[in-house]
What does this fold into?
Amino acid sequence: MKESKNSTQPSEEMVVAKFEVKQALVGLALNDTDEHLLKYLDFLGSQVPVHAACFLHVVPRFDLFTTGSADELELLVEQQHIKEEVTEQLGGDIQLLVKKAHIKNTTYLARTGDPLEELLAEAAEIEADLVVIGKKKLAGSHAILAKNMVRKATVNALVVPEASWNRLRSILVPIDFSEHSARALQQALAINKQLAEPVKIICLNVYDTPNLSPFRLSKTAEEFQQMVEGDRMEAFDLFLSSYAPEGREYIKKILIPKTFPATAHYIMDYAVENEFDLVIMGAKGHSKVELLLMGSVTDHLLSINNTIPTLVVK
It folds into this structure.
């Protein structure tokens, strides 16, 4: 991952607040991904405070090919009936799968229109601090919607793959020493402060291996590798002293040298091999350009991750 040249100086007074969700917006697809998504949210609410959640399904708007007012009225009436049926179905599913003790206030509604636009508009309307969406095992329009929603949302976003587990024993935080990964680490620490039994947080740095040729005359390959790893660990310690003022006893540092370009694949392979339960990644800032770009590694990881819930921190 590319390192940021700008780093914040260490702050001894920084305190990490406990993680909580004041208002979540949850996008539902009315397909087989919803059951797992609702069960995961119920589990999440049993681990950290989730005060309120709004569940939304967007019914695609009918194209009105006819110009007669009677035809248009008939389509609008039919669309309203569909929305009412959808709302009733949402309420039944939510009451069945989400316990009141875990998420105190739940609302559910249906909208018509473009799914992405309606989800983003509703998130802004209710002042959500977390948007949540599921992801099917097989790539398709729903996977594209999930990635686009994460890219354009102005608040933290959680993507829950259909094949993920409802458990939280370990958290993986990819680190590139940027402010974006610092925010991700702080969210991991904030979650850990809420857990009855804190979990291990693995900070993973995937780094480019410098060209060995300039050092061949003075160092062996092993000595060169030790020098590079020592430099990375020094950067790691400085980063943690800046952004992890507490909870360091739960953090473990891992370095992986990169020999081919796809950083996201290194992260995903490590996450799957070590059976992580949550990945937390930082996105770029809040400007329109930064929101659109999100970050190539984060964007790529969302595309290939079909097994582990991923929290993208804005």
